[in-house]
Each structure stands twice: as C-alpha cells, then as structure tokens.
Write a structure and sequence with these properties.
- By secondary structure, the protein is an alpha/beta fold.
- The chain contains eleven helices and eight strands.
- It has an eight-stranded parallel β-sheet with strand order 1-2-3-4-5-6-7-8.
- α4 packs across α6 and α10 packs across α11.
- The chain starts with a strand and ends in a 6-residue tail after the last helix.
- Bound molecules: zinc ion.
- The site of zinc ion (ZN) has 5 residues, from loops.
C-alpha cells in the first residue's frame, strides 16, 4: 500500500513567518526537507509532488527533485504573485523560464495557477497570468494544478477556453454545484486536510455521494491545512494518510483501496511521473 501526496510545498525557507508561531515544541530543523521526505517515506507516502508558486522557486524545485528520486515538481505562478510577475517580467522572459524547466524529466505539471479573489485588487492581471500558463500547459503538454478561491465561475470560464488542458482542482472544498461542473471535464479533485474538519459536512457529503474514486487525488498542501488530529499544527506529507483514512470512512471502503486508486490516478494524470 502506497500513498502519493499530490500537492505539497517542501521548501520552507520562505515560510519562516508562518512556521514560527506554529512549531509547538518542534524546531525549524524538524521541517528540513530531508526529514520531511524521510518521515513521509516511513509513513508509506512514497511519492510527492512539490509545487511551485513563484518563478524564483524554480532552482530550488529542480534541486530538490534532483536529490530525491521520489519527489516530482510542478512550476507555476500562484495568483497571489500575478501582479508582481506582470510588473517584473515580460511574457517572453517568463515563457523562457518555463521552457527551460518544462522539458526536464521530473517536471510533471504547471502549477499552482488560477484565481484568488479572497483579497484581490488585481483581477485582470490574475486572469492574464492564468490564461498565459494554460497556453504553456497546451504547448508543453502538461497537466495543471489549479488554485481557485472565491472564484469558481471565472475559473471555469477560463478553463473552458482551454479544453485540451487537464489537471487537478487543488484544495477542492466540496461545493456540490462546482463538483458537478468539474465532473463534466477531465479534471481530478485534489482532496486535502479540510475534509477531516468536523464542521465540513457538505464537503464530506460531496465526497461520499458525488465524487467517484477514479477522480480523486489526495494531498496535504503542507505546511498548510493540517488534517485532524493535527489541526492547527504544521502540516507535512506524511499526514496525507489521514486524508485517505477519512475518505475510506466516508465511502465505507478499505484504506488499501483508497491508497491504490488515488496513487493510480496520480500516475495516470501526471503521465511523465513514473514508478
Ligand atoms: Zn499549495
């Protein structure tokens, strides 16, 4: 039985401000990438997809995947950094950085990309950067990892304009209407720690009743959104097992089945990723 964490952030060097108040008895060294990967491996989380959010991540993502045979990488510009990239780079410069990295073996996707209207005054730039990266996904024939917060309608509209692109809706949060829309596409649902939160009953119902297992990937989004029983603490890839357990409980099937099917889904979607 193996698990795959389909969305995590392993390089925590830029996250100190976020990490420090949440260490609860641990040290920053405890979250060193070697130890994170090792603890994941011990927990049968044998593969991970390390996700980028900014073009300054590319070298670090490359270095980590070169070092660990079981860590794949995804490069992309998170909507939060859309404005900054529009101001700093031309589209040709950005395309060149993607071109250098997308041809490498362990670059299996583009992401995380999308729209985040939670706090935003840069909707137009977000849309431009999102569409641009979907074009790159078409050009390089790579799936995408979608971040969409408070922006479902626009996200779907832009995705529909790129029907050849497939991928995963990362951190899906269970809205039934949105689930139905996604089910009509080829996209997978990235299910993370929020599924285990007691109050998320609608999300749990959606997973139980609407999502079929062949469309689900499991993820942590670590260091964020740790599942129960670690809620409020720092998340890490080994905890993805708790997400799988919750899906098994909801669907009333064995955790082996969840592990097998979600791992198979991962390798089917990110078809450059190999066992
Ligand atoms: Zn993420």
């Amino acid at each position: 039985m193996i698990f795959v964490d389909s969305h995590c952030h392993l390089d925590l060097s830029g996250f100190e401000e976020f990490l420090k108040p949440r260490l609860v008895g641990k040290t920053l060294e405890y979250y060193d990438v070697d130890l994170l990967v090792d603890r994941a491996f011990q927990a049968n989380v044998k593969y991970m997809l390390n996700i980028g959010t900014h073009l300054s991540d590319v070298d670090k993502l490359t270095e980590i995947s070169d070092r660990f045979s079981n860590v794949f990488r995804s490069i992309g510009i998170h909507p939060e950094y859309a404005k900054e990239h529009c101001e700093k780079f031309s589209f040709n410069e950005m395309r060149e950085i993607f071109r250098r990295c997308c041809g490498l073996d362990k670059t299996v996707s583009i992401g995380e990309i999308g729209l985040d209207y939670h706090v935003s005054n840069d909707v137009e730039q977000q849309k431009k950067i999102f569409s641009f990266q979907l074009e790159l996904a078409e050009e390089f024939n790579l799936p995408v990892s979608i971040h969409s917060r408070d922006a479902w309608a626009d996200t779907m509209e832009i995705l529909e304009a790129h029907p050849k692109v497939t991928g995963v809706i990362h951190c899906f949060s269970g809205e039934k209407e949105f689930a139905e829309k996604v089910l009509n596409t080829s996209f997978y649902f990235g299910i993370g720690g929020t599924l285990t939160f007691k109050k998320n009953t609608i999300f749990q119902e959606t997973v139980r009743d609407i999502l079929s297992l062949d469309r689900i990937l499991i993820e942590t989004d670590s260091p964020f959104l740790a599942p129960v029983p670690f809620r409020g603490k720092l998340n890490e890839p080994s905890f993805v097992v708790h997400v799988a357990e919750k899906i098994a409980e909801l669907k009333n099937i064995s955790i082996d089945q969840i592990a097998n099917q979600t791992s198979r889904n991962f390798f089917e979607l990110f078809n450059k990723a190999k066992f």
